[in-house]
Write a structure and sequence with these properties.
Blueprint: H1 3-28, H2 38-53, E1 68-70, E2 77-81, E3 102-106, H3 110-113, E4 145-147, E5 152-158, H4 170-187, H5 189-193, E6 195-202, E7 205-212, E8 224-225, E9 230-233, E10 245-250, E11 260-261, E12 263-265, E13 276-278
Parallel strand pairs: 1-12
Antiparallel strand pairs: 2-3, 2-13, 3-10, 4-9, 5-6, 5-8, 6-7, 7-10, 10-11
């Protein structure tokens, strides 16, 4: 077991032990002060912080790699969020193999954007107060086709998690960060990534697609897929504020143990935060 994997598992165990001790303390009225249990929680966060922020030895061949060029995983018009073009690690941590991960959000087509009134399907903006949450169907990314970025072998498929309401309001975002995110972290990576797929691209590189729509995954573990092939559809499962695709390359199939690998998309490069891009017209979804 790798040091990163061990740290992640240990942190989850410490958090669960904290919850069990607090419950037992309340039920049985143990003599020591209940706040002593918080030492376990502090240790858990210390362990996971070290594990998530450690990127590996700088001279390690597994870390120092040139960006791998792959096909874009989507078609149509999208914008970037948490991009490795702006900073690494892109999501603030190296944990879960997401050093060079990127989030992308579907946008309405340019001709619609130029109209005076927004057309149906425009991405709802963040709201401070109301509405607190929206249906995933209100976002243009929801149900968008997700494609294989290269010829590959499917090594991991996780399905069955619900597509929840958006968290794109102040109250929703606070709930996601302070409550839901912690619960998902304790529950394991599959609860963070939601429905997801991992592809083996060969030569020690793996592609992960997260937050997929439940019931739309078209592949099984062991399947061989081709670049541009339809894998699933975009959803809002896992630790997600709104329907979007979380994409990353890794040096192993297990996000808990893997390190991130830099990528670049053919014809696009790596879009910066807020940058809108369109997949090359030659890329089409193949079943």
């Amino acid at each position: 077991m790798s040091a990163r994997k061990l740290g992640t598992v240990a942190s989850r165990g410490l958090q669960l032990t904290f919850i069990a001790l607090v419950t037992a303390h309340i039920c049985f009225g143990w003599g020591y002060h209940i706040l002593w249990n918080c030492l376990l929680l502090l240790l858990a966060y210390a362990v996971v912080t070290v594990a998530n922020r450690w990127g590996g030895a700088p001279d390690s061949p597994r870390v120092a790699r040139e960006p791998l060029e792959v096909a874009p995983p989507v078609t149509g018009r999208w914008s970037a969020l948490n991009s490795p073009a702006d900073r690494t690690p892109s999501h603030g941590v190296h944990g879960h193999g997401q050093t060079y991960a990127i989030d992308i959000l579907a946008e309405q087509e340019q001709e619609q954007e130029q109209e005076q009134e927004p057309k149906p399907g425009a991405r709802p903006a963040f709201r401070w107060l109301w509405p607190v949450a929206r249906r995933p169907q209100d976002f243009p990314a929801f149900d968008a086709p997700i494609l294989a970025v290269a010829d590959a072998t499917v090594v991991r498929v996780v399905d069955g998690q619900r597509d929840h309401l958006s968290r794109n309001s102040l109250a929703g975002l606070l709930y996601l960060m302070l409550v839901e995110g912690s619960v998902r972290e304790m529950s394991g990576t599959h609860r963070i990534l939601g429905n997801h797929i991992v592809l083996d691209l060969g030569h020690g590189t793996y592609a992960a697609y997260a937050h997929l729509r439940r019931g739309t995954l078209t592949v099984r573990e062991g399947d061989r897929v081709h670049a541009g092939q339809l894998l699933a559809r975009c959803g809002n499962s896992g630790n997600s504020s709104e329907p979007h695709l979380h994409f990353q390359l890794m040096d192993g199939p297990d996000p808990d143990a893997a390190r991130g690998v830099p990528f670049t998309w053919q014809g696009i490069g790596v879009p910066r935060n807020g940058e809108t891009f369109e997949a090359p017209p030659t890329v089409t979804a193949r079943t």
